[in-house]
């Protein structure tokens, strides 16, 4: 059975959003995942290679994935809003996805700017199964609102991320409350050059989560 791939328009707070829905191959979806792209002002779109590989890994995990373009990107309506309006875009896309797959566990994933957006949104979703944050720009300000979060958080981070050097990222990670895991991926830069296969594999193996307190799989609770 070939996997379903559908283009959609989603009603967002600033106009319609261009979106792409993809179901996993050869199985019914067992969870639903929203995947958000990097900074619109630096060429970020839903077709970014890191976003694509995250989504492909999640489909291997049995997820139906929804990628979309933030406001003002490609055919999505509206204009860039410095992350504030984009969080509203993500909330609208998540609502659409949950209505399409009612009752399915859901997770949020994002790369760089998109990771920052889903960290904001996901920490306001007490029933989120998981947040996957790839390439979190830890060097940038405005991290206080992420410190406490009811959802488990999986951070996938390049060993040579210019926007989140190892010491800075580890310090941020240690400050976070809740269930969390940080995975270092050997790569050349923020965009996981040379490490995309490992990134995809980590996404593919994210579900189901191990039992809480299972110390040998790297998950911690602070």
- Provide the CATH architecture: 3-Layer(aba) Sandwich
Structural class: alpha/beta
Task: Please mark out the parts with pLDDT under 50 across 5 or more consecutive residues, or reply none.
Answer: none
CATH top level is Alpha Beta
Please, could you describe this protein's structure?
This protein has 5 helices and 9 strands; from the N terminus they run βββαβαβαββαβαβ. The protein is α/β, with parallel strands linked by helices and 222 residues long. Strands 1-2-4-3-5-6-7-8-9 form a 9-stranded mixed beta sheet, sandwiched between helices. The radius of gyration is 16 Å and the shape is globular. It has a single domain (5-207), classed as 3-Layer(aba) Sandwich (Rossmann fold). The termini are far apart.
Search tags:
single chain, nine-stranded mixed sheet, 5 helices, 24% strand, alpha/beta, 222 residues, Rossmann fold
Task: Give me a quick take on this structure.
By secondary structure, this protein is of the alpha/beta class. It has helices spanning 49-60, 84-100, 113-122, 166-175, 196-204; strands spanning 5-12, 15-22, 31-36, 63-68, 106-111, 130-134, 153-158, 179-185, 220-221. The chain contains five helices and nine strands.
